[in-house]
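REQUEST ID: PR-0412
SUBMITTED BY: lab tech R.K.
PRIORITY: routine
TASK: structure prediction, single protein chain
INPUT:
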Amino acid sequence: MFSAFAYYVFIYPLSLLPLRVMYLFTDFFYLLLISVIPYRRSVVRGNIERSFPEKSTKEKRKIERQFYRHLTDLLAEGAKNLSISEKQLLKRFKVENPEIMEELYAKNKDVLLVSGHYNNWEWLITGQNLLFKHQAVGIGMPLSNGFWDKKLNARRSRFGMKVIHAKIVHEFLKSNSATISTLILADQSPGNSKKCYWMEFLNQTSGIIFGPEMLANQYDQAVVYFSLHKVKRGHYSMQLKEITSTPRELEYGEITERFAHLLEETINEAPQYWIWSHKRWKRDIPADLKELRAQQIQKFNDRFRSN
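STATUS: complete
OUTPUT:
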């Protein structure tokens, strides 16, 4: 009941305001975050410290402050996402090289669109079906709050995006007949340290989610990396880079390695726009990593490269 009250009385009406007005509220909130309310400061600071050991303390504190500024912008833009019109969304979110997706669509090739929580991914979720000819699909886990889960997914899908529960992904892909592009943000902390791909990422041994590589191989989907760039406040551009259109011709780990290196390049270019407040390095590195890697390669090859 409280969630519905908050949504209809405060949050949705707030989203109807012009962004320039909403930014006034979040500008004030930014001042609180860097002075009075140190939101996950130890997590943010620790992540930045480990990722950029070569930078000075002054440089790292600058990234930290810029990140909190970006985070508060995302709050305004996330609220605006609930009511933003198709016209406004397409004005504020541009694709620089859509021909990559157009060529894959012409070949009737399904696509995995992969990246991380960098810049405004929420506007992409909402607008993806407007940007490309592929039917847009999003994979997610349900929120614990049933009202917000239903409401947010309804708003995200109002321009045609299909939001699929992670537990029924295979069921959906096996029965799907449309040419689709599935959006995956693959920079979360892996759920199982034994099933992820371990590699060097941002100057530390990191577990990278292996799901996109598995899906690409199982369903022969092209993999396209995208990076989002802030043109100016409230305006973004999207750049695409094809990782592969023939995943079954690559060796174990190649897709994941290429994705992680591209994301690393994007982050290094403008680190303040990545979400540093997430606990992405909370999984312990397996003690038997060399043996584990050998087992993973064997299982992968038995499943996808045995013929």
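NOTES: The beta strands are 93-95, 111-115, 135-140, 162-165, 180-185, 197-201, 204-208, 222-232, 235-244.
REVIEWED BY: pending
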